[in-house]
Amino acid sequence: MTDEPTLLTDLKDGMLTITLNRPKANAFDxxxxxxxxxxxxxxGRNEAVRVVVLxxxxxxxxxxxxxxxxxxxxxxxxxEHLLATYNPMIIEMRKLEKPIIGAINGAAAGASLGxxxxxxxxxxxxxxxxxxxxxxxxxxxxxAVSLMLPTLIGLARAAEFVFTNEPITAQQAxxxxxxxxxxxxxxxxxxxxxxxxxxxxxxxxxxGLAKRDFNKAILPHLEAVLDYEAHNQExxxxxxxxxxxxxxxxxxxxxxxx
Length: 258
Hints:
Layout: E1 7-12, E2 15-20, H1 30-45, E3 51-56, E4 60-62, H2 78-84, H3 86-95, E5 100-104, E6 107-109, H4 111-118, E7 121-125, E8 129-131, H5 145-153, H6 155-164, E9 168-169, H7 170-176, E10 181-183, H8 188-200, H9 204-218, H10 222-236, H11 240-251
Parallel strand pairs: 2-3, 3-5, 4-6, 5-7, 6-8, 7-10
Antiparallel strand pairs: 1-2, 8-9
């Protein structure tokens, strides 16, 4: 680990860019989760911020939760963890009455997939991949993935990619409405900035009211879903499947569940 901040921020011309910057793979620990939640909250209070761009440093958006924070399985309350980290973050993102653009520069997996899906708009590099990830270590979806993913791509597709843990390519994501735009990887930063600048010049307060409408119409049960995900994750975290999934992950082998 270095002394470099795990979140890099830059505010220019009404555009706040937040870059995930935690070696390795921009994986989240508790401190980084709480720091990002605080950034979204502060963005809502700062009148100089008119649009937020969220992206990752390097070649990955984020690998999701840093599993090294947890023990071999069952030692830590997953419910308490989610109530302290991702649940308030997702709620803060949806409460922020300013556009959030997710500039997905590479793989987004696990909890970071939920963060990407909680953005209002998504622009992806052609090299980006979306991986549900949770079942890879014997867990159920959280971070609102169980709500956002089927809302965007449909229940059957969501079930397939949750159960199989196969990646969704950038092109598939575009065709299915998971992302709004796909651009060459080397053009992502400029394309996201141009889109953000366009939105920043627009009626941002009206956009915030539109976001309220969307939340009411499409996501009225978001907080209840997040709470129920945390309940189910507490169950999953105590099952032998999770212990085997974590052991396989650490030993770099295929998990044996059957």
